[in-house]
Design brief:
By secondary structure, this protein is an alpha+beta fold. 20% of the residues lie in helices and 49% in strands. The structure holds copper (II) ion.
Length: 158
């Protein structure tokens, strides 16, 4: 008799467990669609000279959302050091300055292009060749990560 009495309890526990699982599965896609996904990385590419241990990545960061997005860090499995730089021209001299963060206002784009903003890779962990795609990750101030692949283009690409 005890076995029979226990049966409804087991059934109830199974039902509750199933319900909890259903709620978790329903909530997860909502979390994945966090505001950070409003950042779109457009045509990222890289120029790299053979044997040189640095390379610059160019792209356009487009914020399709209604809130400003701030990039606080960039990482890549291909390089030990990845930094946001801005090339400035002062008195005929070209200098690179490190940018801690880059903020893209709501509905706006920020261009990373030769002679201006770029993502600097240094300390390459492996060789790259023209036509290859180099993965990197933009880390946002809200903790979200946006992944992209930079196409390696010939040295004379503009
Ligand atoms: Cu640089």
């Amino acid at each position: 008799m005890t076995g029979l009495a226990a049966f409804p309890g087991t059934l109830a526990r199974t039902f509750v467990a199933g319900l909890v699982l259903a709620v978790v599965v329903t909530v997860m896609p909502v979390l994945a669609a966090a505001p950070g996904n409003s950042l779109v990385v457009q045509s990222p590419w890289m120029r790299k000279a053979p044997g040189v241990d640095t390379a610059a990545v160019y792209m356009v960061l487009r914020n399709t959302g209604t809130q400003a997005v701030t990039v606080t860090n960039v990482t890549s499995p291909f390089a030990n050091h990845v930094m946001i730089h801005e090339t400035t021209h002062e008195g005929g001299q070209s200098r690179m300055r490190m940018q801690e963060t880059i903020t893209i206002p709501a509905g706006k784009s920020v261009a990373f292009e030769p002679g201006g903003l770029h993502v600097m890779f240094s300390g390459f962990t492996q060789d790259v060749s023209v036509g290859q795609k180099v993965p990197f990750t933009l880390v946002l101030d809200n903790g979200d990560e946006v992944k992209a692949d930079a196409l390696v283009r010939p040295l004379d690409a503009q």
